[in-house]
Design goal:
Elements (H helix, E strand, L loop, with lengths): L8 E2 L11 E6 L8 H6 L1 H4 L12 H14 L6 H15 L6 E3 L1 H12 L3 E2 L2 E6 L2 E7 L4 H5 L6 E5 L2 E2 L5 H8 L6 E7 L7 E6 L1 E2 L5 E8 L2 E8 L6 H14 L4 E5 L8 H11 L5 E7 L7 E4 L10 E5 L6 H11 L4 E4 L7 E7 L5 E10 L15 E2 L24 H12 L13 H13 L10 H16 L5 H16 L1
Parallel strand pairs: 2-19, 13-14, 14-17, 17-18, 18-21
Antiparallel strand pairs: 1-5, 3-20, 4-11, 5-6, 6-7, 7-8, 7-9, 9-10, 12-13, 15-16, 15-20, 19-20
Length: 493
């Protein structure tokens, strides 16, 4: 679990239109396209003689079904319900987790969250293989603190199954007021049994850029972390980079681990100042034959006078992958970490006259070398896995772990103990006398009653200790390797 603080729609409510889908623009339908409500009111006219040139012949079949249901179905069904269902069905038939439709009520609820509340668990989700799936938790969010990871599947929330729900319906169950609990049943790849993870909903940080200087072997290395690409991210990035440069950095690390993406414009503006020789940043290939392929290029000629390294992992998606691909292909800079998420499409949102919203995938993006990374991701130049304990899950909050218990929760406990330097001598998920002795050693070190049981006090102390260890930059193997690469290149220059 990433205690250290690193649809698609966000469970919370920060820059959601700029989430792990790559957003290009907000579009308004043409006036003559008509709102959904107008389709209902004029349904017969649409298929009447004389309108064949205006509407596809295939719409006649749709109207036949509409008429049959209105005439023959055992219960009364409103026109609006049928029209909304037809739109849902069309979008669902695309089998694209990034295209979505919100009826007016859902759209109003969603938009109100964007502008009024910033509370929830803080994670980007999408619908994959019929299940609500984590793209990435936000940095320092409740989701991250609870140990949620990319590709975790959320099966239920507070005992309510999410089976059969769309992303919006699931999000409505997951989000909630600050201080309340979201008890999630999680299926994690590589673990046979579902896990229980409890998130305490909170305010979600909206700061997207953070910077610092790290001294390594006599070199001042600037580090800029981008948590997502919102409308203000590029401006903040430029300001903080300028501040680092004034302090005299000899190298730069750009950290987009756990960054689910965001606005295309934001990553384009950052790429413009980093990619040298007016190099290519990204290619956009549209689905519509009426729109030509676009290429976005850097506006700067000279390369930065210091080496750059990009930190990536499986939570780096969409706009993060654009930046990583641009700096690798056009800048010749190194990528360090693990393979990225693999999100290579572009979405745009259309608001209809009745305030419903249709979000469609309208294009795919390619790296400067013409690679489509969708569902493949980008491989790092220097692959570095984090220590195993970085992937530990939250200990159960609703029960004690004790002698002779077995299962994934005990196996996770053994992983945490090993991460804390207290070797239980086994990691197979059976709570034997050696595991009990390891728990007692931890309790003694923390001046807790030496019961050998993982009660609430022991659980909290273990999680605090692990969180502190993971947040120590010395234990961040990916960061340490990035520093090593940067310093080595800086000294060569």
């Amino acid at each position: 679990m990433k205690w250290n603080g690193r649809s698609v729609l966000a469970i919370v409510l920060v820059s959601m239109i700029a989430s792990s889908f790559l957003t290009m623009a907000m579009m308004k339908p043409a006036a003559d396209s008509g709102p959904a409500g107008a389709v209902t009111a004029a349904a017969k006219q649409l298929f009447s003689p004389g309108s064949k040139d205006e509407y596809p012949q295939e719409f006649h079949k749709l109207y036949e079904a509409f008429s049959a249901i209105k005439k023959e179905y055992i219960q009364n069904v409103s026109n609006d319900q049928l029209i909304e269902g037809a739109i849902d069905g069309m979008v669902g038939s695309l089998e694209d987790p990034y295209s979505d439709y919100m009826d007016p009520t859902s759209a109003e609820e969603f938009n109100s969250t964007l502008h009024s509340t910033f509370q929830g668990i803080g994670a980007e989700v999408t619908l994959q293989n019929g299940r609500i799936t984590i793209v990435s938790p936000f940095k320092d969010s409740p989701a991250e603190r609870a140990g949620l990871r990319p590709n975790d599947q959320i099966l239920s929330v507070n005992g309510e199954s999410l089976d059969g729900l769309d992303v919006h319906q699931a999000v409505m169950k997951i989000r909630g007021p600050k201080g309340t609990k979201a008890v999630l049943k999680i299926m994690r790849p590589g673990i046979a049994e579902p896990m229980t993870v409890t998130c305490i909903r909170d305010d979600i940080p909206i700061e997207t850029v953070r910077s610092e200087i790290i001294k390594k072997d006599g070199v001042n290395v600037g580090k800029i972390e981008i948590s997502q690409f919102s409308s203000e991210t590029a401006a903040h990035f430029k300001d903080q980079l300028a501040n680092l440069e004034k302090q005299g950095i000899g190298g730069l690390i750009i950290d987009v681990r756990g960054n689910p993406g965001g606005y295309l414009l934001a990553v384009k503006e950052i790429g413009e100042i980093l990619v040298p020789k007016k190099g290519l940043i990204v290619k956009i290939v549209y689905g519509s034959q009426s729109r030509e392929q676009e290429e976005f290029r850097s506006t700067t000629e000279a390369a930065k006078p210091y080496p750059i390294v990009v930190l990536i992992n499986d939570g780096s998606a969409s706009a993060s992958e654009i930046l990583a691909g641009a700096l690798r292909d056009s800048g010749g800079y190194k990528l360090v970490g693990t393979k990225t998420f693999g999100k290579g499409t572009v979405q745009s949102t259309m608001e209809m006259d009745d305030k419903s919203q249709l979000k469609l995938t309208i294009a795919k993006w390619l790296t400067p070398k013409g690679e489509w990374v969708h569902q493949k991701g980008i491989e790092p130049d220097v692959k570095v896995e984090q220590p195993a304990y970085f992937n530990a899950a939250q200990l159960p909050a609703d029960k004690e772990l004790a002698r002779d218990m077995a299962g994934s929760e005990v196996k996770n406990l053994q992983l945490i103990l090993e991460g804390l330097g207290i070797n239980p001598d086994r990691n197979d998920g059976y709570f034997d006398e050696k595991t009990e002795a390891a728990v007692k050693r931890f309790q003694a070190a923390k001046k807790l009653p030496q019961t050998g049981k993982v009660d609430q006090a022991t659980r909290a102390a273990m999680e605090d200790s692990l969180r502190e260890k993971i947040r120590d930059p010395k234990n961040d193997l990916q960061l340490q390797k990035a520093l090593e690469v940067v310093v080595q290149q800086a000294k060569v220059k």
